[in-house]
Amino acid sequence: MDIKSMKNYLYWLYCQFELITCSYLMEPWEKLLFYTFNISMLVTVLYTAYIFVPVHISTAFQFFLYLFENQHENTVSIVK
User: Fold this and answer.
1) Which of 9, 18, 32, 75 allows an S-S link to 24, with CB 3.0 to 4.6 Å?
2) For residue range 23-44, what is the model confidence (pLDDT) as tens digits?
3) Is residue 26 exposed (0-12), middle (13-18) or buried (19+ Cβ within 10 Å)?
4) pLDDT value, residue 39
């Protein structure tokens, strides 16, 4: 894929984005506010996912590890 076709493809994606969000109807200052809000929300979601998802995965892993360890000990004590 050469540079010109990549540029055309990115422009096509941008046009599709404007059509889907109807931002092509907005004035430039409205577009600026709209894009600023959307980008800030995206950054907030990505930051939250980066900070909190690994903590929750670690906590869930420790919880399930604790459950499986206790289950093994309980079955061994019943057999004895």
Assistant:
1) 18
2) 999 999 999 999 999 999 999 9
3) middle
4) 96
Query: CA-to-CA distance for 14 and 12, rounded, in angstroms?
Result: 5
| 22: DSSP letter | T
Do 21 and 32 meet the contact criterion of CB atoms below 8 Å apart?
no
Within 8 A by CB and 6+ apart from 1, the residues are 9
Distances (CA, A) of 47 to 21, 44, 79: 24, 5, 49
Residue 38: closest CA among 12, 17, 19, 53: 17
Low-confidence ranges of the chain (pLDDT < 70): 1, 70-80
